[in-house]
Q: What sequence folds into this?
């Protein structure tokens, strides 16, 4: 812990650009992530327009060539996962919430934290710069399988491919630095009295996610360096003509890539847990069950990766092993969902905007979860692998994670972050428009996937079975869903920036929540707590019997009733 | 169920379809139950004036049933699905019925080419028939294939057969199929392979033995070799190959 007792107000440069304050770093991640989401969203708009009207001019972009189409889908995926989901869920919420929720003044390593953002910012600049390099950005899919990604002669974007890899590797470094900070801070920085089972679930989930990330990313960083050597120095790690093996990359990539799903899922689940408890006015159903299932997901997440490679040419006997492990991981995940649903039982549910988003997360994520079974089971994956069914499935997980849960978090913690309330009415309009648009965009993809539409095709005219009017109508419907979704995000942006100045002044604890961040002014000052808090109970004591108020802040001393609490 | 979306034309296509249906029925039922219960709770415990929430920790034994019973049900469903998945997988990928004919498939940026063993039924002999974009096979005949790639990863996918297999440079990957219905079916490339990925089309033409014999006869004609893949049924099969030639 940085044990500095006095926190003088720093200069503008030190405060916003060279900050070590966890809240400012959180905001830096937050706004960078938000900007990258606009970039990633624009890419999706362009390629969905191309699919709805192949070969037509896309307003705001132009005509999409096959090579550009590949780059668009590649960078949409890369940006949304590495530059939106990761910074938003882990870095922005992790940085903002962990010190405030566990009751300490800053992260354990504030300067490592600053370095982490700076490297992340650099990585964002590098990935964006790949749009402007000779040959254009990389187009070999976000999985970057060699040999395609290894040789300019194959991918036609030698610059783009290397710049892409460099950016991703830098991003990993940034999150390694951030991850160690989250874990150490939570383990060492907790307020006196906060025991392991008194830590808010969202903090636990970010910690577990950071641990998963740190364990899984190492092999891929090594793999990325090898791929960079293949590209630039002419080594042959993945080149079969020189004794290398392209499948090696797939193992290294998915050994990270599948745990990565849980790296972003867990913080989202954590946000939802906290929002759910506050607005159902209920103690979380089975705090320990949630924690144990979280660890189970974290551990099992390491042994399922090859379900991405059933038909990749691995030994077919391995598929059986990975089918079993993949279906086993459905057990803790469904259990987590059941626990969340059960939390509503006996509640007094307030349908505020953050609560709507949290509830929508559960409703939509269930669909994403069950459709994963079709893909984790080897027999059906033969048909469904790399079709639009996969796209629909993972967007039913990733959109709830990176968009719906993030909005739940933004609407919930905005008063704490910025000291103002967001407009509820516009928040609800934003919510309903987004949910309708989202479902309309992705339900048709389940159908086109079942009909055999392969991913990453810029049009289907060469394939008699796919080039039917019925399928084209479904594709257009999907694009229509996106076109509904997008304008509602501008409503959010207007609400967000308007409320920064004109929103209703937020009280210290507008939602009557228990956790420690609500015991400091909104927004919290540098150093967070005027007086360091002491914790007396768990974070979810809502509706506790024998109390007039239906909440019981963690730092409020217990009345001495002779009980042992 | 899947037949409504995509015709099935191989011996194992219906087993994949049945497995999809089995999973859909199982998870669909539980999805609906879970969502219905979820929405009912939302309605039942909505905020009302004067109603306060109950203090339930979820650690009580009788309440834990709400988690442990679904937990057991999920395990049972998982086991059913695993058994189904492994059975289908073993049939399609892990075991191979004896071959009646063997073909070789080459994937390259961005075209499919095929080697048919010709009248003698043996690969790598003088009478092999090479085609681009079109694979001619006999109906109700068990084919083995040897799948190779000349450059990057590709994936040989015949949706109507429920068949998909990546092609990996440096490896020869073997698999099998047995077509059940004459007709022309699409071959897709389902692994990102570069600029022409979206036009890397091919056709499987499933023929009766007589039609196949006729095709072999035509193929023996020296003129055939000079004009690969110009059959009107595959007008676009060479588009990817053309793309490959014009690239910088």
A:
């Amino acid at each position: 812990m940085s044990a500095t007792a006095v926190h003088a107000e720093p200069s503008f440069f030190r405060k916003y650009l060279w900050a070590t304050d966890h809240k400012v770093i959180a905001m830096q991640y937050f706004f960078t992530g938000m900007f990258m989401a606009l970039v990633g969203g624009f890419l999706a708009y362009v390629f969905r327009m191309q699919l709805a009207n192949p070969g037509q001019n896309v307003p705001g972009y132009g005509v999409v060539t096959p090579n550009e189409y590949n780059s668009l889908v590649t960078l949409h995926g890369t940006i949304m996962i590495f530059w939106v989901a990761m910074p938003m869920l882990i870095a922005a919420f992790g940085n903002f919430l962990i010190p405030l929720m566990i009751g300490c003044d800053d992260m354990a390593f504030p300067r490592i934290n600053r370095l982490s953002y700076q490297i992340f910012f650099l990585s964002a600049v590098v990935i964006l710069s790949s749009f402007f390099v000779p040959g254009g950005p990389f187009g070999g899919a976000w999985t970057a399988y060699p040999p395609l990604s290894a040789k300019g002669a194959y991918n036609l974007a030698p610059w783009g491919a290397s710049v892409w890899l460099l950016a991703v590797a830098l991003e990993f470094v940034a999150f390694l630095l951030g991850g160690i900070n989250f874990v150490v801070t939570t383990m060492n920085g907790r307020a006196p009295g906060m025991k392991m089972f008194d830590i808010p679930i969202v903090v636990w989930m970010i910690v577990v996610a950071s641990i998963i990330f740190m364990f899984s990313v190492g092999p891929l960083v090594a793999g990325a360096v090898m791929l960079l050597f293949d590209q630039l120095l002419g080594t042959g790690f993945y080149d079969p003509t020189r004794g290398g093996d392209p499948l090696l990359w797939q193992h290294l990539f998915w050994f990270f890539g599948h745990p990565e799903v849980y790296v972003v899922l867990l913080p989202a689940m954590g946000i939802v847990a906290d929002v759910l408890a506050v607005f159902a006015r209920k103690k979380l159903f089975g705090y320990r069950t949630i924690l144990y299932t979280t660890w189970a997901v974290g551990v099992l997440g390491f042994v399922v990766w090859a379900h991405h490679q059933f038909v990749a040419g691995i030994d077919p006997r391995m598929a059986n092993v990975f089918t079993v492990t993949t279906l086993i991981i459905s057990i803790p995940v469904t259990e987590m969902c059941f626990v969340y649903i059960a939390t509503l039982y006996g509640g007094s549910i307030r349908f505020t905007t953050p609560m709507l988003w949290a509830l929508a997360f559960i409703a939509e994520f269930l669909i994403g979860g069950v459709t994963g079974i079709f893909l984790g089971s080897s027999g059906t994956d033969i048909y469904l692998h790399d079709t639009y069914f996969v796209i629909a499935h993972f967007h039913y997980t990733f959109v709830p994670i990176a968009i719906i849960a993030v909005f739940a978090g933004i609407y919930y913690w905005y008063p704490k972050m910025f000291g103002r309330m967001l407009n509820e009415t516009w928040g609800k309009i934003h919510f309903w428009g987004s949910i309708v648009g989202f479902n309309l965009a992705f339900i048709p993809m389940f159908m086109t996937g079942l009909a055999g539409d392969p991913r990453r095709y810029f049009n289907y005219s060469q394939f008699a079975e796919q080039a039917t009017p019925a399928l084209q109508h479904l594709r257009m419907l999907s694009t229509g869903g996106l076109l509904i979704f997008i304008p509602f995000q501008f409503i959010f942006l207007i609400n967000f920036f308007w409320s920064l100045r004109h929103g209703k002044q937020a009280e210290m604890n507008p939602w009557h929540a228990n956790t420690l961040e609500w015991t400091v002014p909104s927004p919290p000052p540098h150093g967070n707590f005027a007086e360091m808090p002491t914790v007396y109970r768990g974070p979810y004591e809502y509706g506790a019997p024998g109390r007039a108020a239906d909440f019981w802040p963690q730092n409020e001393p217990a009345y001495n009733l002779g009980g042992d609490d | 169920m899947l037949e409504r979306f995509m015709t099935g034309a191989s011996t194992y296509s219906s087993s994949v379809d049945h497995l999809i249906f089995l999973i859909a029925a199982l998870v669909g039922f539980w999805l609906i139950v879970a969502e219905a219960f979820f929405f009912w709770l939302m309605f039942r415990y909505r905020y009302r004036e004067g109603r306060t929430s109950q203090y339930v920790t979820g650690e009580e034994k009788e309440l834990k049933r709400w988690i442990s019973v679904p937990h057991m049900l999920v395990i049972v469903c998982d086991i059913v699905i695993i058994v189904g998945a492994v059975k289908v997988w073993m049939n399609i990928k892990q075991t191979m019925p004896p071959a009646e004919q063997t073909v070789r498939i080459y994937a390259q940026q961005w075209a499919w080419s095929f080697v048919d063993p010709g009248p003698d039924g043996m690969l790598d002999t003088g009478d092999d028939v090479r085609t681009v974009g079109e694979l001619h096979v006999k109906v109700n005949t068990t084919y083995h294939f040897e799948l190779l790639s000349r450059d990057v990863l590709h994936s040989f996918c015949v949706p109507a057969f429920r068949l998909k297999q990546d092609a990996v440079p440096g490896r020869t990957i073997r698999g099998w199929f047995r077509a059940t219905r004459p007709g022309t079916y699409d071959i897709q490339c389902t692994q990102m392979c570069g600029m022409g990925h979206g036009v890397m089309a091919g056709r499987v033409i499933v023929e009766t033995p007589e039609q196949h014999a006729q095709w072999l006869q035509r193929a023996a004609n020296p003129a055939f070799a000079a004009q690969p893949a110009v059959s009107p049924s595959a007008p676009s099969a060479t588009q990817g190959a053309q793309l490959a030639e014009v690239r910088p």
Notes: The longest helix of chain B spans residues 61-94. Chain B has two domains: 2-94, 101-243.
